[in-house]
What we know:
Blueprint: H1 3-15, E1 32-33, H2 34-44, H3 49-60, E2 72-73, H4 85-88, H5 105-115, H6 117-141, E3 143-144, E4 147-150, H7 153-156, H8 165-169, H9 183-186, H10 195-210, H11 215-218, E5 226-227, H12 229-249, H13 254-268, E6 271-272, E7 277-278, E8 281-282, H14 307-319, H15 346-358, H16 362-379, E9 384-385, E10 392-393, H17 399-409
Antiparallel strand pairs: 1-2, 3-4, 4-5, 5-8, 6-7, 9-10
Helix pairs in contact: 1-17, 2-3, 2-5, 2-17, 3-5, 5-6, 5-12, 6-12, 12-13, 15-16, 16-17
Bound molecules: (2R)-2-(alpha-D-glucopyranosyloxy)-3-hydroxypropanoic acid (9WN).
Amino acid sequence: MSEPLDSAAKAILHGNDKGGYTVPTAGLYPYQWNWDSMFAAWGFSTFDIPRAWEEVETLFTGQWPSGMVPHILFHRPDPGYFPGPDVWGCDGPVPSSGISQPPVAATFIRKIWEQDPEAGRAHIERLVPQLADWHRWFMAWRTDRGAVFITHPWEAGRDNAPDWDNAMARIDPVGVGEYQRRDTAHVDASMRPTKEDYDRYIWLVQRGRRLGWDDAKMAEDPPFRVADPGMTFILLRANRDLEALAAEVGHPTDEIADWTRVLEDGAETLWNEELGCYDSRDAVHGGWGESLSNASFLCWYGGVDRPEMLRQLDRVMSKARYGVASYDPDGAKFDSKRYWRGPIWGIMNTLIGLGLSQCGHEEQARRVKATTRALIEDHGFAEYFDPLNGAPAGGGRFTWTAAIWLAWAG
Length: 410
Ligand code: 9WN
């Protein structure tokens, strides 16, 4: 713990607090993002548990009748972000996007609850059925052979990861029309996804809107479906935590335990023998993403141990100074600045570290944590970092980086 950095981290959370929810960073991301918000809640819980619960409850006000919890909630209009609510055209209880995001919620809800079980009881009694509805939605609409697939790169939270390159190349974004990006007005374009990526991101949003975001219609002739180790391991872990919470409040657990077994089998469909790692898999056309990414290393977080992955981790960590690069530094597509194609993300280090520790790999867990701590001490609370020299990149004063400092790294 370091006093000045603790205070700086708390000031970032307070500064990004919009009253009931926290934005990832001012300017670049002016709304409530799903998984960012759950990291924020965990960070708040280190000094203000009621505020942590408020963050969680606000996210769940946006849950759709289908059970889906959207990736962005547009509580108040802000012209600084594109695509906004008018482009998504969704009609959930709160203006929102039409896709979801990594379901870390059950895991962080459990962590917050454990800090004060009595104060949290009413919250988990309310939230367990909502979490179960969300997980059921994933199992019904986002699984292929038991692995969780995404229908849009934003759904994985790893927007331009090399994992999706092959599947994205199959999309012809015909008719996408003119639009004005806002992200490149806030940060350098060399650190962001390309125009080719954005055309496809927007084309996929336009398709969803045309189909009224109806799950069944969207499942017909899908243009993009990639099974993702990140989503699979995160849901697997969340499901184990949900089962524990459900048992606590007397909610049925059989169905949840079944999902865990399905996901465990599904995770093994993502083992790429040739590459020797968990990899993404095209769920429409087949074929691997051919990407060893930081999501591959979430296996331990999901409770899945593999000696080959420990060897891969040692190699990847030996190439970077501060933790786990988002894409293999020896890989052909490695780019140390471009977002999810190389940079280090503190939140991913955190999930990897939690998993390693849970599986008893204490030495590796300590190393991931120590390098993440050094990264923030040396380079601040940026959105992400260059793995070669730690240079901060993307947005500054970032909520989730501050949150993991308070709850884990610091
Ligand atoms: C699109 C907010 C979000 C994160 C994602 C990250 C980035 C958005 C964007 O920012 O995505 O959802 O516009 O680039 O990739 O993980 O939740 O911090």
